[in-house]
Amino acid sequence: MTDLAFESAVALAAAVRERRITARALLELYLERVEKLNPSLNAIVVLEADKARAQADAADSALARGEKPGPLHGVPATVKEAFDLAGTPTTWGSPAHKANIAATTAVSVERLQRAGAIVFGKTNVPLFLADWQSFNDVYGTSVNPWDPERTPGGSSGGSAAALAAGLVGLEWGSDIGGSLRVPAHFCGIYAHKPTWGIVPPEGHGLAPAPPTDISVVGPMARSAKDLRLMLALTAGPHGPAARGWKLALPECRKRSLRGFRVAAMLDAPQAEVDAGVRECLESAIEFLRREGARVDTSARPAIDLEDVARDTVLLIRGATSAKLPKEEFERALRQRGELEASADDYVARHARGVAAYHREWLIEHDRRYRMQLAWERFFEEWDLLLCPAASTTAFRHDHSQPRHERLVPVNGRPRPAIEQVFWAGLAGIAHLPATVFPVGRAPDGLPVGLQAIGPLYGDYTCIAFAELMEARYRAFEAPSALRSI
Q: In which domain, by residue range, is 322 found?
């Protein structure tokens, strides 16, 4: 049964639908693994086992009556703690919100449930989703199934760890600065950051609020085909918007890697890539060449990469500033007032982003729009831009503060971990879709993922490419220590 635990959600749904296993037996398989493995991983932090058992029994009864099953019928799932799930806490890792019990379920999660997914728990996050490590004073620290001394990433770190360890059939997370993509890369799974605005974010928050700039919600899985299915099930307007518009994402017409035109950017001075990661990425690029894909390692959109590095911080910090506690905002306001005009380090960018005047934000937004136009011109010739999801493999736990001073080794030299957000911002601030998929392991034995960035609304092209790479090059592999458990 161990092999079944690591199957794709599509395969699990087929097994239930074809009555090779019952929904209840499949759920019990995962609950047994959670009982055995989760105490050391701390990936799943909210568990609704009895409620899930009742739902699994109902799913089996529906099949017995001959009812038509949904595409995820009977698949056990968990979701990131940041999503509302009726009757469970939504804290975002903050002790101040421990009593915040959701009355309703997030729209996207509800859509997965309507498709038949059985959500039996929630997975760990960093405080206010603001870290590439998943630790907080409510639930503690999550660890990477490949090496417990290392982070599974963040902010969807518990999600990635649960999938990689075979604790769950599918997961649902969110991303503003790599929170889907970095955990996927660190844990060796698949994740898709959708085009901004196509999947309703309602129910992902601590209070009702308008959609946050750059922030998206999206799927995580052990197979690219699961990403496709989950996106198809969740994308589309909700509420009043559904009265006025419909979403029609274009399908990818390419059926082989030979048909793809891909540009590859495997390093950048703004976020130097460690040699171990780069070697894996280069091997994947060489494979694409052998498959007959058109590959160019010098083609780039006509954007200033230093603008990307700066505006990633300014726009993300501006987007999240309203959610900051008042004292943190006031501290950034004071910092901003004390800055030299020429200051342009991370602290300066952070303070300017949090405490930006509206006119300054509009100027940044205008610069972002010009980036989007440049991306559009680029995608007239190229289908995808391939690049790292992060500069290093999963790094060691470091909970020291302030976060921007934490260092990680890159090519034998200590570098600020925060600068790696450049690779997330490349797609994120321009609202572009991006899929991360595993391409191997670095010399340290840890997983490496490749990021495929596509044009606006080109989500299925990104995912189709990942599906082809999964079939032809590398697929998910379970962490060595867990393959026989």
A: 305-375
